[in-house]
Amino acid sequence: MVTRSRSVLFQRTTVVPAFALVALVLTWGRDVPGWVVAVAAALLAGAVLAAVHHAEVVAHRVGEPYGSLVLAISVTVIEVALIVTLTADGGDKSASLARDTVFAAVMITCNGIFGLSLLVGALRGGVARFNPEGTGAALATVATLAGLSLVLPTFTTSSPGPKFSPGQLVFAAIASALLYALFVATQTVRHREEFLPVTSEGHVIEEEEHEHPPTARDAWTSLGLLGLALVAVVGLAKVVSPTIESGVEKAGLPHAVVGVVIALLVLLPESIAAVRAALRDRVQTSLNLALGSAMASIGLTIPAVAVASIWLDGPLLLGLGSTHMVLLALTVVVGILTVVPGRATPLQGGVHLSLLAAYIVLAINP
């Protein structure tokens, strides 16, 4: 036991996040040359893989749906800190950063991770099977949160522009937090069985098929290392973000592309973990990760930026434009049609991935 615990300190999944944190400390708030950015990007990728490993160890110990919930909340909490930090540093130019990053997270999770998981699961077993009750409840919550926080601000008249008045922002923040808390209680307590993986015959899998679950000590160690790895991931994403912004400006691309790139970097751990789960024929776990991450991104970000807006200068633009509202509506409608049968072929996965591709193309060339 002692030998095993000591060996963990020298594993790649421990050493890489440690180096990434050192790099984060040395580069934070500084202008760094290109080669340092390249090293930071490499360490960021290593920290992503380490985060996925430790998340899987924790998930193995606590079981589903708690494992996917741990990863989704961990990533989103640090993502929120990143958004607030960048918004505070960017002034008026970052007025729409929260909206752009949250919407990018919704599209990446609900179409990218969701579609890729279905595609991988269907190609592996012919048909990807999941629980429509739990997945449908998650999709409905995501749709409601997105509508309240990202669509309504475009149509309100109390404040000019696509933003809430202070009272409306308080309501959106409280509603988002309460809805997310209610969903977590539903997922983990009252209706936990609706979020567990199912067999090809549609039977719920209560216990994962693992030889030796990790000990409590190993699980706590991995939980701590998961937090460190995620801090490194999001912190280094901020370090490389000036290079990203510079590249976006030099390429003549819209500033919203910065939010897309940041969301892609931050959601890498969930993406890899979801694909691995789909390869093990645990598509429900993959969908829990996808929709849970989308929900947490809205349900935690909106209250956070609402509180932060008290001391942040400049407007807080949350309302989507018409093009993005169409993409969100298509995502919700296609998601409903995908979820209702409780099974999906590669076609459904391809449809969701095509919506993500459309979003990325229109973000680059609006």
The strand order across the widest sheet is 1-2
Q: What's the average pLDDT?
A: 81
Name the CATH architecture. Answer: Up-down Bundle
What series of H and E elements makes up the topology?
HHHHHEHHHHHHHEH
CATH homology superfamily: NCX, central ion-binding region
Instruction: Supply the number of structural domains.
Output: 1
Structural class determined from secondary elements: mainly alpha
Helical residue percent band: over 70%
Keywords: Membrane, Transmembrane, Transmembrane helix
Main location: membrane
Membrane topology: Multi-pass membrane protein
Protein name: Ionic transporter y4hA
Secondary structure blueprint with pairings:
Blueprint: H1 2-8, H2 12-27, H3 34-62, H4 66-90, H5 97-125, E1 128-129, H6 132-151, H7 166-190, H8 216-250, H9 256-266, H10 268-279, H11 283-308, H12 322-339, E2 343-344, H13 346-364
Antiparallel strand pairs: 1-2
